[in-house]
Amino acid sequence: MTAVIVLAVMLVSGIIAMIDSIPYSIRTVYRYAQEETGIAPRGDPSILPKLVETVRKNAPVPIERIVICRVSSSLVKSIVGKWPFVMLGLKQEDMAYYAQRQKTTSVIGRYPRPGAPETIVSQPVAKNLGLKIGSTVLKPDDIENYAPTPVKVVGIAQTDRWFMINSIEYQRENYFPPIDDALIFAKNLADQNKLDHWTVKRFKGQRPLIFAYFQIEKNTREMFSTLYLILNVVISALAVVITFMMGMLMNIYQSQRIVEFGLLQAIGYTKKQLLKRVLLESVSVITLGWILGLFCTFGLLNVANKVLMEPKAYALDVFDLQAYAYTIPIPFSILVVASLTVVLRFRKFDPVGVVERRLM
Amino acid sequence: MIEARSASLAYIDHGKQVFACQEIDISVKENEFLGILGPSGSGKSSLLYLLSGLKTPTGGDIHYNGRDLADLGDDERSKLRIREFGFVFQQPYLLGYLTSLENVLVSKPNENRHQEATELLERLGLGHKTHRHPHELSGGERQRVCVARALLGSPKVIFADEPTAALDHKNGLSVVQLLNAMRSTGSLVMVTHDPSMLEQADRIVRLADGRLDKLN
């Protein structure tokens, strides 16, 4: 019975943890956006200086740096397919700043030279795409990761953030449209979110397009709200099935012990004592099963993470509290069914029937 | 000690009232070995369950030391059974997951009677099997563990319901002799259909069709 509860807990928390890994992956892959507020002039390069000036003068928090950049698109892999990612074109003097802002502790290799078909990628991107120094990341014959000339990796940044940088000169020379964007960095990271909200509000209804991390969070939540609703229904149905199954198992288990209960009641155990004994046993079995189930899930998620996810830098939270929390109703519902079964059985239980061998 | 006054036990079978025991007057005295003899279906087990408080009479009453058992609630009757009575049933019912010693101790929960239980098993010839589980014992040995369980705590009355039914004659006789020899000051009420098992009884009553037939 303990084993069944263990499996039930593993099933529920395993499903939730794997589903949770999708939004968790989104947050992990695009976490670089937490450090910056992006402004794109949306087709009109002439307004960028004005936009930058507006932010510089009116921002509600101190600005550390405004970086002019170009972006082109690339792709990274996830457990649910390929996701769009940006190749950021930066000036030489901004590359180290950007990498440091993205928590880079060291760089293996070097930064791309101005105008050269070179890139530096962060460690998770390198893992995800299987890149080493010298690997080609963009090439003319790859429609998903296109560049007119092969772009080679010349550096790998040691950080848990995801980013790809090449030189702004290379992008200006080879990509369309010919429009620069701006990245605004608040002096204190704690202020970046405030800056994001202010910028979105300030340019609402105007031409520029603002990229802010809180929008990614909001979109992710909205995108998954329906999925989680369906998931709740599925898990509830699963919990009901498991509970019924466990109730039936409990019933069979108690039927097998009918002689024991009959004997004990016949020699003088009260119904209350027997009830207490059986309920205590049930609580112990169920609690043990639940705790073991949580440990087994943790072990399973760790193995899955090490073997399947980490080598590709896929994100899986082995400490996903939501996944574990989803299993909380399982022991309680089983306990309720078990208690009801026991109480009903004991209500009209006749020990004489057992010792006379009528109920065996 | 125990007195049944016009005690009856009836049940409804297909809409008809059937008597398992009918208007039985009987008493169990202190320290006596009372044998209840009768063929199968004569109501002897029902009488035993009435006398021990396991069943409540549908007519008449059962008194134990002057108290009407019907006045006691379920819990009080259970407590009376565990404190003052010992039971041996037809089948050597033991808890399979407990050792012989633990099975003996089951009859007196929350009491430290480890030493007494060990001595009882030794006297019953099972001193070397105290840590064996029921499946490692023969039928006779299992019933002897049941005897030890019934004797633990020197109960005032031991009720034995066909304790030899599942044993061969030799083993059965041995169990009865042990039960009688070791009951110290307690009374023994034993139900059987085999008169040879009651050779040591102080008194024998016969039951037929739920009625007391004859007193010896």
Task: Report what the structure shows.
By secondary structure, chain A is of the alpha+beta class. Chain A is 55% helix and 18% strand. In chain A, strands 1, 2, 3, 4, 5, 6, 7, 8, 9 and 10 form a 10-stranded mixed sheet that branches. The longest helix of chain A has 44 residues, at 213-256. The two termini of chain A are 22 Å apart. The mean pLDDT of chain A is 91. Chain B has 216 residues and is an alpha/beta fold. In chain B, 29% of the residues lie in helices and 30% in strands. In chain B, helix 5 packs parallel to helix 6. The mean pLDDT of chain B is 89. At the A-B interface, helix 8, helix 9 and helix 12 of A face helix 2 and strand 6 of B.
What's a quick, concise take on this entry?
With 360 residues, chain A is of the alpha+beta class.
The major beta sheet of chain A can be summarized as: 10 strands, mixed
Main structural class of chain A: alpha+beta
Distance between the termini of chain B: 19 Å
Query: Which geometry of chain A do the CA atoms define?
Result: elongated
**Strand arrangement, largest sheet of chain B?**
6-7-8-3-9-10
Quickly count the helices of chain B: 6
Keywords:
heterodimer; A: alpha+beta; 12 helices; 10 strands; 18% strand; elongated; B: 216 residues; alpha/beta; 6-stranded mixed beta sheet; 29% helix
What topology emerges from the helices and strands here?
The complex is a heterodimer of chains A (360) and B (216).
Chain A: H1 2-29, E1 37-40, H2 48-58, E2 63-78, E3 81-90, H3 92-101, E4 106-109, E5 118-122, H4 123-129, E6 136-138, E7 151-158, E8 164-167, H5 168-174, E9 181-186, H6 189-202, E10 209-211, H7 213-256, H8 258-267, H9 271-309, H10 321-325, H11 329-347, H12 351-355
Parallel strand pairs in A: 3-8, 5-7
Antiparallel strand pairs in A: 1-9, 1-10, 2-3, 2-9, 4-7, 5-8, 6-7
Helix pairs in contact in A: 1-7, 1-9, 7-11, 9-11
Chain B: E1 2-13, E2 16-28, E3 33-37, H1 44-51, E4 59-64, E5 67-68, H2 74-84, E6 85-88, H3 100-105, H4 114-123, H5 139-151, E7 157-161, H6 169-182, E8 187-192, E9 203-208, E10 211-215
Parallel strand pairs in B: 3-8, 3-9, 6-7, 7-8
Antiparallel strand pairs in B: 1-2, 1-4, 4-5, 9-10
